[in-house]
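hiii, so i know i said id send this last week but things got crazy w the move. better late than never?? heres the sequnce for the chain we talked about at the cafe, plus the structure i predicted for it. fair warning i was half asleep when i ran it
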Amino acid sequence: MASRFKAWVAALLAGAALAPGLLCAAEPVMVNVATYNLRLNTDDDGPNAWPHRREAVKALIRYHEFDLFGTQEGQPEQIDELAAMTEFAHVGVGRDDGLRGGEHAAIFYRTSRFGLEIHGDFWLSQTPDRPSKGWDATCCNRIATWARFADRSNGRRFYVFNVHFDHQGAVARRESGKLMLRKIKEIAGTAPVICLGDFNSTPDTEQIHALSAALTDAYTASRTPPYGPLGTFNGFKLDAPMTERIDYVFVSAPWRVLKYGVLSDSLGGRYPSDHHPVAVRLALD
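okay and structure toks below
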């Protein structure tokens, strides 16, 4: 009898080694999430053009150990160059044709941490299922990309939405906020959600009020004081006033925001982009 009992205990412990968490509660999902407007690739930026700063962008992402991050303004070649960081995979399509054409709102994720389950895209317009401009937007199509991930350590599932609101149309920004909330409910239901991006909107606007009422603004929920400047757009100027937030990370319950920061890293007197990345440390029990 004693020998059979010992064999049972040994087998149980061996199974626990193969399946961590079998004998105890699963560890929470801890993830470093960021939103980063890359600034498009244009020769007009001179010394701040993408070829001069792409390595700084990749170095920043790696040094701060992003696990998931959304990009805005990234053109196909910029997305390809970030994809050279082979520890990451990504989803997202071009806003012009739903393929590769034009800027992307891509979602990059660390493949050792997360498995991609499903993903999709929609446009910020009255016809979100196809490339299109919305409301009073006059410049260009605007797109949102979403994905559902499973944490490889414990199988917890969650959704990420990444978006870039219009920079000119006030109606477009307001209606885009409503559309985002409808789509999040339609796609994610009651599952945990992270919604991030460049909203081209300050906290006092109707659309940010609506998003903050339905979700939680990571800036206000951080369990440690927010780090870095308040503002997120620097215009490549080291002396920019940095007083206005237009880039955000929103979360739903049961995400907890442990840390929030606006990363104002510079190298040789230059910023890696005309936006600072917003980085947060999240926990999902």
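btw The two ends are 40 Å apart (CA to CA). thought thatd interest u
miss u guys!!
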